[in-house]
UniProtKB/TrEMBL annotation:
Pfam family for this entry, one: MeaB
Coiled coil: none
Matching SUPFAM superfamilies: P-loop containing nucleoside triphosphate hydrolases
Name of the gene: meaB
Protein name: Methylmalonyl Co-A mutase-associated GTPase MeaB
Length: 358
């Protein structure tokens, strides 16, 4: 086993931080570390926290840490901040609101920059989460950057997705549109002491109800959107109760994170989703689909890296040819794929045997 992986499994904080840095930077033998750690992952509950900028995600995340620590759970946090298009750096300021937990040895907080990645996450976030899973986290909170309606990467890697909204921020209009609000397993209407909180809750309830009608009418009661999952609301478990078979119905909680109000009730609703996810056949199918999507992303990234490395000058020549309009980009792409295959890197229709390579 890689020495650094061994230290991560021994829950050494500095070694874990170093492993996260190598994985985030994708330098050195980071892949060997991930391969050694992978058999020791799969135990943590990955909880995604997303929503519009200014909704209070960081403050609410801080409160969630306190609740989980009060339950005796080890908690890891991955806070993703946007990268500056001018300097390439990031402020990484979300963790400032979590200072109360910095001295807790059972809380590990890691900030990541998006580095130009879209979808509210960074390219390395899945691998960093696996490092923290192997470190021994019972819960890994992944806080995305402030995202818009179509940045839904968090749903592809988190077990449970919490969408944080706030009254007076346009959410009343957003609630009737497709996008970020459709990815929620649980909604938190934060800053619920403000005017408009009741209206925000009603709009979210209306979105879920209308979505259920659309899904039932179309016969497409499948997928992860609130619209599809509401089609069989009678199958959803009630928080704290035994999970019942059927799609999960998104639920809504009101919170005032700055005053720690409603956070315990929110955790109960999150636990209800976790019970459904790990206690029903529908939840098992959902987890398998999430792994399938994650594998597709991993394969896409691996193939892209391999193709760029293998093609080298041919790729640059294709770019020049497209710029000169001597070939169209579609034909150029087909030619590059053919060249990649002919180099022996991949064969048409080839399959990978279990345990055989990448």
């Amino acid at each position: 086993m890689h020495p650094l992986a061994d230290k991560v499994l021994a829950r050494e904080t500095r070694a874990t931080a170093r492993a996260c840095r190598l994985v985030d930077d994708r330098v050195g033998d980071y892949a060997a570390i991930l391969k050694d750690l992978f058999p020791h992952t799969g135990r943590a509950w990955i909880l995604g926290v997303t929503g519009n900028p200014g909704a209070g995600k960081s403050t609410l995340t801080d409160r969630l840490i306190s609740v989980f620590r009060g339950q005796g759970r080890r908690v890891a946090v991955v806070a993703v901040d946007p990268t500056s298009p001018f300097t390439g750096g990031a402020i990484l300021g979300d963790r400032i609101r979590m200072q109360a937990h910095f001295s807790d040895p059972d809380v590990f907080i890691r900030s990541l920059a998006t580095r130009g990645a879209l979808g509210g996450l960074s390219r390395s976030v899945v691998d960093v989460v696996r490092v923290l899973d192997a470190w021994g986290a019972d819960v890994v909170l992944v806080e995305t950057v402030g995202v818009g309606q179509d940045e839904l990467e968090i749903t592809r890697m988190a077990h449970t997705t919490l969408v944080v909204a706030a009254p007076g921020m346009g959410d009343e209009v957003q609630a009737i549109k497709a996008g970020i609000l459709e990815c929620a397993d649980v909604f938190a209407v934060n800053k619920a002491d403000r005017d408009g909180a009741d209206a925000a809750v009603r709009d979210l309830e209306l979105m879920i109800a209308l979505g259920g009608e659309v899904a039932a009418a179309s016969g497409r009661a499948r997928g992860h959107s609130a619209a599809a999952l509401h089609a069989r609301a009678q199958g959803a478990p009630s928080p704290g109760g035994e999970p019942v078979e059927g799609p999960w119905e998104p639920v809504i909680a009101r919170t005032v994170a700055t005053r720690n109000e409603g956070v315990a009730a929110l955790v109960d609703k999150l636990e209800g989703h976790r019970a459904w996810l790990f206690g029903t056949e529908a939840g098992a199918a959902r987890r398998e689909e999430r792994l399938r999507e994650a594998m597709h992303v991993q394969l896409r990234d691996a193939l892209t890296d391999a193709a760029v490395a293998a093609l080298g000058p041919a790729l640059e020549a294709a770019v020049h040819a497209v710029a000169q309009r001597t070939v169209d980009p579609y034909t150029a792409s087909e030619q590059l794929v053919a060249a990649f295959r002919s180099a022996g890197a991949i064969a048409p229709g080839a399959a990978v045997a279990p345990g055989g390579g990448t």
